[in-house]
Design brief:
Number of strands: 9
Biased composition (Polar residues): 409-420, 432-442
Radius of gyration: 53 Å
Bound molecules: guanosine-5'-triphosphate, magnesium ion
Distance between the termini: 166 Å
Largest sheet: 6 strands, mixed
Family: Belongs to the TRAFAC class TrmE-Era-EngA-EngB-Septin-like GTPase superfamily. Septin GTPase family.
Number of helices: 10
Order of helices and strands: HHEHEEHEHEHHEEEEHHH
Pfam families: Septin
Domain Septin-type G: 41-307
Helix content: 40-55%
Region (Disordered): 1-22, 379-398, 409-442
Structural class: alpha/beta
Length: 442
């Protein structure tokens, strides 16, 4: 083989050569093909609304999409935050949009709000997991897969005019690596113009000082760089929602009517609703979808696969194939299983030994107890025996004494019965009454 050929083969990726075409070929229609394919396929867009109950989430969604989504008022007595997704099929011109609005029902209503962010994080992760599982399938159908990954989180800030609540900061911090967050000041008609300006500055300051990364409208695409840069400076958008139509001049506009005047939703002097709609739907919807896939989902996927033991290269930075990873993981799993088995066996043996020792100790204790009791019993028996002997001796002594006493008594009785007779004889002798006498026994 010639030296030049060798060089060509050893060069992994030769530079592509530029050629000029002799006439029209047709691949300039590729973008049109993409558009047509996308239009046929339709799009999906998923919005997560996080904000306290009654802050105006549903009204804003209705206002944004100029329709009425059937939603129910949430109660203030939810035990924990519950994520409620609703999917709608929308069509504008010939473009189909599968819109999912996810409501964080009961957010901010619990007394203990420590774990309020968790169901939201879990929901977002679950959608990533579903997508990952679909990707890992052998027969995957990502083409018609209903992508439920959350593309944007509209975080509704209460228009207090003061500062963000800890709950807001904690929740946004927990979500910022998982979803594109667009913070919005809800019910902005309840806050004055000067207060609103200060409030916006304060919110942005707090987000920066707490390291919360909110979504920045991209400025790398020339076509939208300018408008996006301007809009980034307007964040957080102060919005007003209403589905009510009010006649202003000779036009019907969506507005909120008050005794002192009318707040027009689509009037940029009244609120930032139009800015939000433009940025969210018209200009940056695709970027939000793209960021969700390339940044947030990618991060989830990487962490998850690493957690499962997959890696792109081994310790020496050598690329690792899926097969090798699988084999390595299998070996690791088997040795881990063996180790666990051995550990359990050892544990079992130790346990048996321990129980055996315990039993022996118990037996010894019982034996000692028995011996002790036996000794006590013998001692008692000896004492009882002694007592019995003493008692017998006492009884026989008593009996002897009793017999002696009885003998003495009978002697005494005998003696007393002889004495009166002698006296009477003496008396008779003395009185001459020898034939008459009497005996008195007491
Ligand atoms: P839940 O789903 O029950 O949590 O409530 P929500 O956040 O969806 O609020 P919803 O849109 O139901 O609005 C609650 C109340 O706030 C309604 O009376 C709305 O008319 C009112 N509201 C909505 N948006 C605005 C707004 O921009 N300004 C004012 N002042 N009131 C609003
Ligand atoms: Mg609602």
């Amino acid at each position: 083989m010639a030296a030049t050929d060798l060089e060509r083969f050893s060069n992994a990726e030769p530079e592509p050569r530029s050629l000029s075409l002799g006439g029209h070929v047709g691949f300039d229609s590729l973008p049109d093909q993409l558009v047509s394919k996308s239009v046929t396929q339709g799009f999906s867009f998923n919005i997560l609304c996080v904000g306290e109950t009654g802050i105006g989430k549903s009204t804003l969604m209705n206002t944004l999409f100029n329709t009425t989504f059937e939603t129910e008022e949430a109660s203030h007595h939810e035990e924990c935050v519950r994520l409620q997704p609703q999917t709608y099929d929308l069509q504008e011109s010939n473009v189909h949009l599968k819109l999912t609005i996810v409501d964080a029902v009961g957010f901010g209503d619990q007394i203990n709000k420590d774990e309020s962010y968790r169901p939201i994080v879990d929901y977002i992760d679950a959608q990533f997991e579903n997508y990952l599982q679909e990707e890992l399938k052998i027969r995957r159908s990502l083409f018609d897969y209903h992508d439920t990954r959350v593309h944007v989180c509209l975080y509704f800030i209460t228009p207090t005019g003061h500062s963000l609540k800890s709950l807001d900061l904690v929740t946004m911090k927990k979500l910022d690596s998982k979803v594109n967050i667009i913070p919005i000041i809800a019910k902005a008609d309840t806050i004055s113009k000067s207060e609103l300006h200060k409030f916006k500055i304060k919110i942005m300051g707090e987000l920066v000082s707490n390291g919360v990364q909110i979504y920045q409208f991209p400025t790398d695409d020339e076509a939208v760089a300018e408008i996006n840069a301007v809009m980034n400076a307007h964040l957080p958008f102060a919005v007003v929602g209403s589905t009510e139509e009010v006649k202003v001049g000779n036009k019907l506009v969506r507005a909120r009517q008050y005794p002192w005047g009318v707040v027009q939703v689509e009037n940029e002097n009244h609120c930032d609703f139009v800015k939000l709609r433009e940025m969210l739907i018209r200009v940056n919807m695709e970027d939000l979808r793209e960021q969700t896939h390339s940044r947030h989902y990618e991060l989830y996927r990487r962490c998850k696969l690493e957690e499962m033991g997959f890696q792109d290269s081994d310790g020496d930075s050598q690329p690792f194939s899926l097969q090798e990873t699988y084999e390595a993981k299998r070996k690791e799993f088997l040795s881990e299983l063996q180790r666990k088995e051995e550990e359990m066996r050892q544990m079992f043996v130790n346990k048996v030994k321990e129980t055996e020792l315990e039993l022996k100790e118990k037996e010894r204790e019982l034996h000692e107890k028995f011996e002790h009791l036996k000794r006590v019993h013998q001692e008692e028996k000896r004492k009882v025996e002694e007592k019995r002997r003493e008692l017998e001796e006492e009884t026989s002594a008593f009996n002897r004494r009793k017999a002696a006493v009885e003998a003495l008594q009978s002697q005494a009785l005998h003696a007393t019965s002889q004495q009166p007779l002698r006296k009477d004889k003496d008396k008779k002798k003395a009185s001459g009454w020898s034939s008459i006498y009497s005996v008195t026994i007491p």
